[in-house]
Amino acid sequence: MKANIPANDVAVNHPTSKMQKPKSKEPKQDPMINRNVRQRVNVFARERFKVKLLQEIEFDLMVCQLEGWSMGSYVCEIKQLIDDIFQKMTKEMNKTVL
After folding, report:
1. What percentage of the chain has pLDDT greater than the value 90?
2. Are 49 and 42 in contact (CB under 8 A)?
3. What pTM was estimated for this model as a whole?
4. Rounded to whole angstroms, how far apart are CA atoms 79 and 15?
5. Is 14 helix (H, G, I), strand (E, B) or coil?
C-alpha cells in the first residue's frame, strides 16, 4: 500500500530539509575585507606564480639544450619582455607623479 506522499516533494520525503539551520549570532565577515589577509594572499599567489614560471622556463631551457637550440637567445627574449613591462610601468608612474 502506497502512502499519499508525492514522490517529488522534498520537504515531505526529507523532513530535515524543511528544518531551518540555526542562525549564528554574529554575521560572518568576509576574510578578504581585511587588508592584511589580502596582502598575504597576494604574496602567496605571486610566489606560487614565480615558482610555476621558473619551472616553465627551466623546462624550455632543457628542451633547448636537448635540441641544440640557443638557450641564450631564449633567455634574452624573456628578459626583454620583462624589461618592456618595467619600462611601461615606470612611464606610467612618472605620468602619475607629474
Report:
1. 52
2. no
3. 0.56
4. 64
5. coil
46 vs 41: CA distance, rounded Å? 9
Residues in contact with 61: Cβ distance below 8 Å, sequence separation at least 6, in sequence order: 71, 74, 75
Tell me, what's the pLDDT at 46?
A: 97
Could you tell me the three cell numbers for 61?
Answer: 631551457
Q: Please, which residues have CB within 8 angstroms of residue 5's CB and are 6 or more apart in sequence?
A: 12, 13
Task: Locate all alpha helices (DSSP H) within the chain, ordered by sequence.
Answer: 10-13, 35-67, 71-97
pLDDT digits (tens, 9 = 90+) for 69-94: 999 999 999 999 999 999 999 998 88
Cell reading at 42 = 597576494
Nearest to 56 by CA among 40, 74, 72: 74
Phi, psi torsion values for 54, nearest 5 degrees:
-65, -40
